[in-house]
Amino acid sequence: MNPLILKIIFTSGIILWLIIRLSYQREQQNNVIVDDRKTPQEKVIRFLVLAGILLFPLIYILFPWLNFANYYLPIWANGLGIVIFASSLWLFWRTHHDLGKNWSPTLQIREGHTLMTDGVYRSIRHPMYTSVLLLCIAQALLLTNWIAGFAGLVCFSIACVTRIDKEEQMLLDQFGDEYEAYRKCTKRLVPYLF
Q1: For residues 106 and 166, is the Cβ–Cβ distance under 8 A?
Q2: Under a CB-based contact definition with an 8 Å cutoff, are residues 187 and 73 in contact?
Q3: Residues 79-117: pLDDT tens digits?
Q4: Which domains are present in the chain?
Q5: Cα 100 → chain centroid
Q6: Residue 156 CB-density burial (10 A; 0-12 exposed, 13-18 middle, 19+ buried)
Q7: Is CB count within 10 Å lower at the N or C end of the chain?
Q8: Model pTM?
Q9: Which candidate, 105, 91, 98, places its Cα nearest to that of 16?
Q10: Residue 24, helix vs strand vs coil
Q11: End-to-end CA gap in the chain
C-alpha cells in the first residue's frame, strides 16, 4: 500500500486516540485524589510512551530523516494493521467509558473509586494497556520504518514492565481481598492467554 496513505491512516487514528483521551481527561479534572503514587520515574515513562507513539511517528511522517530505515510489507499486512488499529481505538474508548470517574492517567486513586469488574474488565484487568499494545502493533504494520514503526512497541514494553505491577499493588492496597479474587479470575492483558 502507498506509504502516504498509510501515514494518513495512522495520523487519523492517532487524532481519534487523542480526542478520546482528552475528552475523558477533561472530565477527571474535578475528581479528588486520595492516593497519589506519581513519581519522577512515572513522568519519564509517560514521556517515553508518548515519544514512541507520537514523536517518532511524527518525525517520520513530516520529515525524510528516517527513510533510511524503511521496510516493505505486503498489502494484507497493512490491511491487518488497519483492523488492529480500529480494534485498538474501540478498546481504548470502551475502557475509558467503562472506567468512568475511576479513570486516571497516572497511578492515582480517586475519591469514591470503585473496583471495575464489568464490561471489558470482566476478562482483562488492564484493557487500557491492551489497547495501547494493539496500537503499537498497528503502528509497526502501518508505518513501515524500523524506527518509527517499532518505537511505540519498544517504549510501551518498557512502560508495561515498570508500571503494571505498581498499579496492581496500588489496587491491592485499596481493595484488598476483593482485588485478589478479581485477579484470580481474570487475565492481565489478553483474555485466555496471559
Answers
A1: no
A2: no
A3: 999 999 999 999 999 999 998 888 887 888 878 888 999
A4: 3-184 (1.20.120.1630)
A5: 17
A6: buried
A7: C
A8: 0.93
A9: 91
A10: helix
A11: 33
